[in-house]
């Protein structure tokens, strides 16, 4: 073999060893790519299985509360499986995913953030439905939903567990816990990326504005309080406020209106007022959250604690083949819906 061929072979070996293989193989660091590939890959697999199973093969309807609970449970278990695998494989300690204890006052503020979150999210939902009808877009059916109403105690308990409790705990633990902890330590990345991913996970075009607002505010609470339980409490405050404010600011069901003419104008006015009030309330609460963050930083500097330090993950470690797989699975979830 000539010297030229040897140099070419060694150059190819160098590129293969230092560029191609590190891109194809999983990273030695926990990263957003492996989290997305696992979470959205399993979600896409479950979505395809759920869509291919005919209703006559099941003893329940897919649009019943039981059917909704079954697919919701499997989707949440997929996220929980990825959470357990990544945290155990990469030895991520609890104070990175769960955060620290910010105190009782932070939990109260986190609950109060759920109030403007509800006002803004429901207002945007109602206006978005009206906008879709106004421009003549057909209202698409939701991928996961239930239409049967349960009047029994057991049905109510099942609805509370599968619609409120389990989604709040597992989704926040995954998006505001695991996803938040592996992202680079930049405030805008740690706030916007979990909000976007949690919004897209729902696979519901009509709820995109509302879910993004909820995800964004939960990420804000998680960042400023450094506690995942606080983001769970924010969503709990959202649901409590939604129930209490339902007579004043109802959630517009797209199946109840056929066109913009049938849309109740009072709902539009109430939505606009709710968004305005929510923004004003939110500005006040964000000021309090920033003050909590300021106190935490001072405490970290004084005590030199490890709790306030983020995971050290090089930026290049996030962009491996698993990141592309995760993005493709997320796109497929939407395309196949």
Question: In a nutshell, what does this entry contain?
Answer:
With 337 residues, this protein is mainly alpha-helical.
Class of secondary structure makeup = mainly alpha
**Structure annotation, total helices:** 11
Low-confidence stretches: none
Number of domains: 1
Proportion of residues in helical segments: over 70%
Number of strands: 0
Strand content: under 5%
What is the average of the pLDDT values?
88
Distance between the termini: 56 Å
Largest sheet: none
> What is the string of SSEs from the N terminus onward?
HHHHHHHHHHH
Polypeptide structure, described:
The chain is 70% helix and 0% strand. By secondary structure, the chain is mainly α. The chain has one domain. The longest helix is centred in the C-terminal third of the chain and has 39 residues, at 265-303. The mean pLDDT is 88.
Could you give the topology of this structure?
Layout: H1 3-24, H2 32-52, H3 65-89, H4 94-97, H5 104-134, H6 153-182, H7 187-201, H8 208-225, H9 228-244, H10 265-303, H11 321-335
Helix pairs in contact: 2-3, 2-11, 3-6, 5-8, 5-9, 5-10, 6-7, 6-9, 7-8, 8-9, 8-10
């Amino acid at each position: 073999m000539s010297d030229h061929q040897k140099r070419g072979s060694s150059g190819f070996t160098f590129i293969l060893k230092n560029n191609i293989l590190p891109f194809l193989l999983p990273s030695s660091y926990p990263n957003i790519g492996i989290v997305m590939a696992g979470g959205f890959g399993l979600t896409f697999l479950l979505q395809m299985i759920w869509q291919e199973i005919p209703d006559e093969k099941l003893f329940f309807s897919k649009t019943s509360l039981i059917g909704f609970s079954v697919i919701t449970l499997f989707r949440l278990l997929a996220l929980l499986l990825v959470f357990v695998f990544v945290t155990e494989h990469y030895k991520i300690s609890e104070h990175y995913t769960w955060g620290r204890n910010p105190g009782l006052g932070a939990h109260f503020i986190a609950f109060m953030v759920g109030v403007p979150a509800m006002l803004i999210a429901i207002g945007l939902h109602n206006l978005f439905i009206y906008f879709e009808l106004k421009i003549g877009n057909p209202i698409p059916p939701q991928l996961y939903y239930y239409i049967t109403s349960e009047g029994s105690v057991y049905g109510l308990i099942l609805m509370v567990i599968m619609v409120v409790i389990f989604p709040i705990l597992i989704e926040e633990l995954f998006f505001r816990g695991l996803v938040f902890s592996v992202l680079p330590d930049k405030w805008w990345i740690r706030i916007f990326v979990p909000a976007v991913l949690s919004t897209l996970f729902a696979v519901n075009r009509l709820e995109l504005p509302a879910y993004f607002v909820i995800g964004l505010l939960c990420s804000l609470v998680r960042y400023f309080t450094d506690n995942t339980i606080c983001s769970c409490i924010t969503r709990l405050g959202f649901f409590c406020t939604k129930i209490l404010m339902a007579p004043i600011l109802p959630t517009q069901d797209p199946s109840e209106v056929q066109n913009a003419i049938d849309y109740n104008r009072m709902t539009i006015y109430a939505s606009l007022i709710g968004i305005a009030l929510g923004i004003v309330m939110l500005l006040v609460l964000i000021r309090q959250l920033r003050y909590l963050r300021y106190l935490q930083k001072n405490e970290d500097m004084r005590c030199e604690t490890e709790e306030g330090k983020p995971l050290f993950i090089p930026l290049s470690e996030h962009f491996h083949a698993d990141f592309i797989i995760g993005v493709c699975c997320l796109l497929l979830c939407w395309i196949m819906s």
